[in-house]
Amino acid sequence: MELTTLAILFFIILTGAGLMALTYRTQKGGAVKLRPHPGYLTLQKQVGQAVESGQPIHISLGRGSLSGRANPTSVAALTILNHLAEGSCANGMPPTVTTGDGTLLLAGQDQLRQVYHQAHRPAEYQPGMVQFQASSSDPITYAAGTSQVVNQQAWGSNILIGQFGQEIPLIIEAGSRAQAEQIISTDDPIALALAYPSAHALIIGEEHLAAGAYLNGQPAQLASLQLQDILRLLIIIAILLATLMGLLVSL
User: Which CATH architecture has domain 55-215?
Assistant: First the structure.
């Protein structure tokens, strides 16, 4: 077995062991303090604002498939959807959800169905609460369809979570016309750059993938973020040591 393969295997084993140890520590009451994130703080207020104002929430899940490379981004988007749907459906203010991917359509419908079942209000669930706008291969049509939904009524919030691209300004512009509070959470740098001037709150890159830890706070999710911080620190130390050794050798 090559040295590189052994090093990768050792790293995977070490990381797995670290994750298990941190998860066990969290389950036993070990404190994990997350860095305050303005985007998630704003996101957590949306249900209450919708109930108080009587203006519902529009959520767009993007156009990233659950079966491709966009899976982590789309799973994080569904985590955010579940959090928002639990509060809004229980208070009789269900969100309207749009998407540009068939797998997200089915997953979104299933989530809302489960939320209504948990709230003991299954008869109120309607499949049309989650709407498929266009194929992921046609982003402009998807954005146009989603914008039309946003233009149909007054929304308290226009929340875009998942995979987006250059089509995102069309949806944001519709949200601006509706005077809705706009929250964008994605890992696409182009979409983030285009969204920055108009968004009230941005959740950027890997912060989007941390949705489970911020919104649900399960031990494994918190331990995963803690492990990432530890690995970052170790990598920084290793880089500094390597740089210092290089300088000493060159003297």
Answer: 3-Layer(aba) Sandwich (3.40)
